[in-house]
Amino acid sequence: MPAFDINSTGESVGKVFADKIKGKTVIVTGVSPGGFGADTARALALYGAKVILAGRSLSKIQATADAIHKEIPGADLKELVLDLSSQNAVRQAAEEVLKYSGPIDVVITNAGVMGTPYEKTVDGLELQFASNHVGHFLFVNLIMPKLLESSAPRVVLASSVGHYWGPVRFDDYGFEDGKTYDKWLAYGQSKTAVILHGVELAERYKGKLVVFSVHPGGAVTNLSSSMTKEDYEKFSDFYNLDGTPKGRLGS
Ligand SMILES: NC(=O)c1ccc[n+]([C@@H]2O[C@H](COP(=O)([O-])OP(=O)(O)OC[C@H]3O[C@@H](n4cnc5c(N)ncnc54)[C@H](OP(=O)(O)O)[C@@H]3O)[C@@H](O)[C@H]2O)c1
Fold first, then answer.
1. What domains does the chain contain, in order, with CATH numbers?
2. Which residues cross the membrane (predicted)?
3. How far apart are CA 233 and CA 247, in angstroms?
């Protein structure tokens, strides 16, 4: 197998695994144009997967679907509206998935927000924790019967280096109802929770399910839309030149 590096693209990796991708049904969350999810969906479609494009905005899902169809006219795509910040919406989306015929082979929980101002969801949770972790945790658990119908199911959870930024604050995951909110500790908490979700899934479904928690690398996407000049400065102090963190940000 060739080594992949900073120049590897979704397409170049997909080419190597084309025989494994062909014919698989894959859900990708967070597929808005310009992000990792859209590019992942494109590469999967290119190599013959059926791709379920999941996101909270139907118009953005359609924009990505249109772009893929334009390039790959025979692409097998399906749209799924999924707002991870609402547990009710997650349950509705999962119900829809459970009605699909055939197994789900892979779910890639890519959607996320980062460094957003303090906000509470309809369920009363801090937004980053709710969107990045709780929504995906609920969605993956609810569609588990469909995953287990597959002969080789996989769950791929997009994390980050967030576990260097902050742990899960089990005693105060809501930052005292926002009073002590720190947007970077909150992002770190949410991504650490994503990793722990992966560890526990792998343990509970040992031998039945393969689970990956993946740091996708750094790229300028819409994710950084909440970042200020000060945030960029803080980050340049936090990382070594090779992109590895220098240490922990929070405690
Ligand atoms: N970019 C990086 O350098 C980097 C580094 C480490 C980890 N990551 C991780 O990689 C993943 C993808 O990030 P990206 O850089 O591609 O960011 P992006 O372009 O902002 O994409 C994030 C996607 O998540 C969706 N999303 C946000 N909140 C949602 C919700 N409540 N329900 C459903 N979908 C929601 C967004 O939809 P809308 O367009 O509707 O907002 C968008 O489609 C994220 O999990 C991120 O934490 C990225």
1. 10-238 (3.40.50.720)
2. none
3. 16
Is 80 exceeded by the pLDDT of residue 248? no
CA atoms within 13 A on the CB side of 28: 25
Cβ contacts of 195-201, under 8 Å, gap ≥ 24: 195/157, 195/159, 195/163, 196/168, 197/133, 197/136, 197/137, 197/140, 197/157, 198/155, 198/157, 198/159, 201/140, 201/155
d(C-alpha 56, C-alpha 54), whole Å: 7
What percent of the chain is modeled with pLDDT above 90? 80
Residues lining ligand 1, judged by CB closer than 6 Å?
30-32, 34-37, 55-57, 60, 82-85, 110-114, 131, 158, 160, 215-216, 218-219, 221-223
Higher pLDDT, 249 or 148: 148
Location of structure tokens 């959870």: 157
Atom of ligand 1 nearest to the CA of 39: 16
Choose the residue to mutate in 108, 222, 231, 235 for probing ligand 1, maximizing ligand atoms within 8 Å of C-beta: 222
The number of beta carbons lying within 10 Å of the beta carbon of residue 6 is 8
| The pLDDT value given to residue 186 | 96
Q: What residue has token string 């494994």? A: 20
Q: What average pLDDT does the segment 80-103 reach?
A: 98
pLDDT tens digits, 119-175:
999 999 999 999 999 999 999 999 999 999 999 999 999 999 888 888 999 999 999
User: What is the distance between the alpha carbons of residues 148 and 176, in angstroms, rounded to a whole number?
Assistant: 38
> Is 232 considered catalytic here?
no
Measured over the CA atoms of residue 131, residue 137, residue 142 and residue 144, the dihedral's sign is positive
